[in-house]
Structures are given as structure tokens and as C-alpha cells.
Amino acid sequence: MPTATRWSRCRRRGRRKLIAATLPDIVSTPVNKAEGLNDPSLLEPADWEEFRAEAHRALDVALNFVRDRPQEAAWEETPPGLKVTDKELPVHGQPLGEVVNAVQRDVLPYTLGNTHPRFWGWVNGSGTPSGVISQAFVGAINANMGGRDHSPMYIERQLLAWMRQLFSYPEDASGLICTGTSYATLLALAVARQHALGESVREQGNGGAALVAYCSEQAHVSVSKAMEILGLGSRALRSVPVRPDFTLDHAALDAMIRSDVALGMKPFAVISCVGAVNTGAIDELEIIGQICRENGLWHHVDGAFGALIVLSPELRHRLAGIEHADSIAFDFHKWMHVTYAAACVLIRDGELHRRSFATSHAYLQGESRGVAAGAPWPCDYGIDLSRGFAALGIWMLLNEMGTKRLGEAIYRNCRQAAWLGQQVDSMKQLQRLAPVSLNIVCFRFAPAGLSRQQLNRINRHIVVTLHCDGIAVPSFTELAGETAIRVCIANHRTRLDDLQALLDAVIEIGARLMTAGLEGEEFDVSTH
Ligand SMILES: *Cc1c(COP(=O)(O)O)cnc(C)c1O
């Protein structure tokens, strides 16, 4: 018998004995029916009806969470006992019901709050109840969206065709559903690099080419990260000054391009902001596109949240010129409220996109029939081979709501921001720090007689207090050195009463801090 042979060999070589004793050779040991290789319930329920009852209870827990979250605090800190990472790795499992209980007890009460009506921090989507259902189907199907011929691939393709249609892109433009605008921008700039350096860049790398790109100083950090990852370096990303409305100053852009060319640099791309992260400013796409065409540069649009105003008939005119851009990156998980993570990149030149990522490995070769058919495969348009089925949640939400309701939710947030801006302007103690151009309001508590430093400290303290007391979640940012309370309304659950509550709380906390300050405290928030 093979095992016996092996044993004797091991006895002769004393050192390997232990290995042979503890690791029976799984290939050569005769298979015994009593091993349970016919047992269907290894990772499946032993009793489907019992499992179904547990699953229905879990679904109720999830739905109740979505329904009741607005009545809870906007945020509650995770207790210290749950911030630990020293729990034992589970070796023996437990019934699903126990695991659901743990989620209900330890996770649900301490979530970020972005499903709450008073969450306006950073840019977060607020999800929808039906997201619970699409996630269930994603789990049921467990599609791998790298390629091959199966119905989920046609859902993603339909979705991309709809996106082309929304942005008036040509039919041979390509796209990919991906995890975020950071990822989408990285892909787009990789294609832009290939556009500038030719196909040889895939084999030879950048080869010291002095490529430079341009974006406004208000652009998102993901643009600079993409430059780093592409091996071009963040210094090769020129920061173009903005005008008083925080949009890119295109006269300055034009001058910077000329000066770089004179210095022997090779400008290759301009990244426009549609919805700059601090203020919501929308760069002038027509003019920037014109500058790009004149100089042979790639025009990429970072429309992470802003590009979705394409869904609103009242707002979409502000995207004029986006249809000429070479690429567009945007998120579904922000202002369209699709469950994280779901984003999209569109590339006007679909063939260049494919040539920037396609590979030809034997084990990934396609066929004209069977499971290996269905070309072209998404894995030839990006980095991932295995990909999740985010497209389903987007497709289901579009089918459920239609573009009309989703666009209304976006428009409503802009009107709410306008209202908030008007309220701020009407209140003596408050000061607006940027124009309200979309869904973001930047303002501060600004009583007379405080220095800039004191104003900055007191406003940071106000935001932290709003969080810690669970009242609301704005974030803060800096505009020309001034700390602003930043309210980004990408939340379909927000009502005017919520924004009124925010204003009342800011005034109340500010007044309290002023009194404390008069008693000698220096609004010191350094301890937070
Ligand atoms: C959020 C955001 C990004 C990054 O998108 P992710 O989906 O978080 O990767 C890029 N640009 C802007 C303007 C954003 O708001």
C-alpha cells in the first residue's frame, strides 16, 4: 500500500517521520464511504425549514434597522469593549441565529449613521430599504463578474448602455462598474497615460516620460493617489488655483500648460471636478474641454457625486460639455443611494480602454459557445479578475425608482441646501464661507470679537460636540485657512426640520462654548 511504503521510507529518514505521521497523504489514502463525502450539509443547512425561519427573522432585523434608525441618535460611539481585536478565531461554528444576534447586539447600534436623516458628513449615500433585498440576491447568485456567459453579465452591460445614454456618450464607448470613484479615476488615468505614451507603456513603463496632469486645488485626493500609483508621482499633478466660486481658473490652467510645455514637460490630462468635495463647485466643462482639445490632452471628469445631477431635469444643464469628455468617473453609492460599493467609469474610446488592460492568458481564453463565451469580458477593462455583482443593486434601484424619482431626490437636496444657506445668511451669529452651488453648505459660528484661530477651534469643537451628542453629523473642512462646518446633503431622508435642528444646536453649543470661554477656557479641542 502506498501509505505503508511511505511510512517505511520515512522511518529510514528519521527527520520526516513527524510530517508523515500527522499529514496522511490525502491523495493516496483509500477513500472510505464512511468519511461522509456524500453528506450534503457540510456548509448547507441540515434543515432548510429551520434555516428559512432564521433567515426570515434576520431579514426582519435588517428591515427594522432601516425603518427605525431615524429615531435613534445620529451616531453612537462603539463601546470600548467592542473596539478590541483579541477575540479568538472561531474554530467551531454556531447556529446562524446566534451570529445574527451578535450583529444585532454589537454592530447595528454603532453604525456610521449615514442611513440617518441628520447625516451630512463627507459625502455618503443613505441607502434604501430595497438595498437589503438586492444584497440578498447578490448573495444568492454569488456571481463572479470577471467574464463568461451568464445573465448577470447582460445586466451590467444594460446598465452601462443606460449610462452611455445618460451622458450622451457614443455607442462604442466602454465602461466598467467598479468599487468607487477613486478606482474609476485610476483606471481612466491609466488609459489617459496609454493615450499619451502608446501601447509600449504596458511593457516598458513610464520610461521617465515627464508626464504632467492638472486639476483644481479643490480636487479630491484620489486624483493625486492615482498619479502616485501610476508611477507618475503626485508632484506631476499640478494644482490649478480656483476662482472665488471655487471652480478651476481656466486662464491659470492655460498659462500653466504653456509654461510646462516651455520647460519640456509633457502635459497629458486635465481632471475636472463636477461637484468639488468641499463646496460642490462644478468646473466649466465646455471651456476646459476646449483647452484639452487645443493641447491634445485627455479630459477626465471626476463626477463622484455631482455627475448624477444628470438625473435631474432642473440641474442637468450644468453638465454641458460632459458629453465631450474622454472619461467620466462617478459613484452610485453616494447620491444615488445604492448599497456600497458601486461606482462607474465611462471611457469614450472603448478600444483604447480595452487595449489598456486586456491580457491573453491561456486559462482565460474565451469561446464562441458555452460558459467561456460572452466576450468581451470585464476583466479586460480593469484590474480585477474576480468581481462582485454590484451592477444588480444599481439595476434594481433604477428599475424600482426610475430616473425621475432619483432625480427628484437629488434636486430636493439642492433646494434644502439653498434653504440652509438662506437661513445662515439671515442669522447674525452665523457666516457662510462659500457660495451654495449644489448640495453643500459651508458655514461657521462667528460671533464678533474672536480671532481666526479661536473661530477655527470653536467650530471644530461644535462639530465634535454635534457628533458626540448624537445630534447630527456634519463634517468640517478648511477654506482658505478658515474652518467651516460642512453640511453635504446627499440624503433622501433629510427634512427641513432636521436642518433647523442642526442650526438650533450649532447656536446653542456655540453660545455654551462662548460662556465657557468667558470663564477662562480657551475652546481647547486639542484633546479630541
Ligand atoms: C467621494 C469622492 C471621490 C472618491 O470616491 P470613492 O467612491 O470614495 O472612491 C472622488 N471625488 C470626489 C469629488 C468625491 O466626493
TrEMBL record:
<dbReference type="InterPro" id="IPR015421">
    <property type="entry name" value="PyrdxlP-dep_Trfase_major"/>
</dbReference>
<dbReference type="InterPro" id="IPR021115">
    <property type="entry name" value="Pyridoxal-P_BS"/>
</dbReference>
<feature type="modified residue" description="N6-(pyridoxal phosphate)lysine">
    <location>
        <position position="334"/>
    </location>
</feature>
<dbReference type="Pfam" id="PF00282">
    <property type="entry name" value="Pyridoxal_deC"/>
</dbReference>
<keyword id="KW-0663">Pyridoxal phosphate</keyword>
<dbReference type="GO" id="GO:0030170">
    <property type="term" value="F:pyridoxal phosphate binding"/>
</dbReference>
<comment type="similarity">
    <text>Belongs to the group II decarboxylase family.</text>
</comment>
<dbReference type="GO" id="GO:0019752">
    <property type="term" value="P:carboxylic acid metabolic process"/>
</dbReference>
<dbReference type="InterPro" id="IPR015424">
    <property type="entry name" value="PyrdxlP-dep_Trfase"/>
</dbReference>
<keyword id="KW-0456">Lyase</keyword>
<dbReference type="GO" id="GO:0016831">
    <property type="term" value="F:carboxy-lyase activity"/>
</dbReference>
<dbReference type="InterPro" id="IPR015422">
    <property type="entry name" value="PyrdxlP-dep_Trfase_small"/>
</dbReference>
<protein>
    <submittedName>
        <fullName>Cytochrome D ubiquinol oxidase subunit I</fullName>
    </submittedName>
</protein>
<dbReference type="InterPro" id="IPR010977">
    <property type="entry name" value="Aromatic_deC"/>
</dbReference>
<keyword id="KW-0210">Decarboxylase</keyword>
<dbReference type="InterPro" id="IPR002129">
    <property type="entry name" value="PyrdxlP-dep_de-COase"/>
</dbReference>
<dbReference type="GO" id="GO:0006520">
    <property type="term" value="P:amino acid metabolic process"/>
</dbReference>
